[in-house]
């Protein structure tokens, strides 16, 4: 994918967004309400390297590190230079800090919903060893993955 094939979405607040996930993102702006940022057609996938594993009872704990791709990083830097807010997965935000931002969910009607704040994004803080902790739980045949820094 090259930058000529990608068009950022301009929100009702005038900000330019580039959704590098495979699905639409619902954003909420205090001044403009809720709006949808469609996928850009470019999905930033991140390979994960398992550094170490251990079991805690029935839970397997994997210590992981995201692996950057040099070509992807160049393209992301080009979009950032154009004042585009790049929104991706938390894993992409960890792999490319200050380039890809993870959505911050907002409360609506006393519930956390699938709506993110249009002007507030999170940048995961990495440890000095540049690793993340990933815990995979197998519950009822379903897999859940929780990723946190540290």
Describe this structure in words.
With 150 residues, the protein is mostly beta strands. The chain is 12% helix and 49% strand. The protein contains 2 helices and 11 strands; from the N terminus they run ββββββαβαββββ. The protein has helices at 70-81, 90-95; strands at residues 9-10, 16-19, 25-29, 33-37, 47-56, 59-67, 84-87, 102-108, 111-122, 132-139, 142-149. The strands form 3 sheets. The chain has a 4-stranded mixed beta sheet with strand order 4-3-9-8. The chain has a 4-stranded antiparallel beta sheet with strand order 5-6-10-11. It has a 3-stranded mixed beta sheet with strand order 1-2-7, with helices on one face. The longest helix is centred in the middle third of the chain and has 12 residues, at 70-81. It starts with 8 loop residues before the first strand and ends with a strand.
Number of helices: 2
Overall pLDDT, averaged? 75
- Which parts are unreliable, with pLDDT below 50 for 5 consecutive residues or more? 122-150
Radius of gyration using CA atoms only? 17 Å
Strand content: over 45%
The H/E string reads EEEEEEHEHEEEE
Strand order of the largest sheet: 4-3-9-8
Could you tell me the number of beta strands?
11
Report how far apart the termini are: 32 Å
Shape designation: globular
In percent, how helical is the residue content?
Answer: 10-25%
Structural class: mainly beta
Question: Which sheet architecture does the biggest sheet show?
Answer: 4 strands, mixed
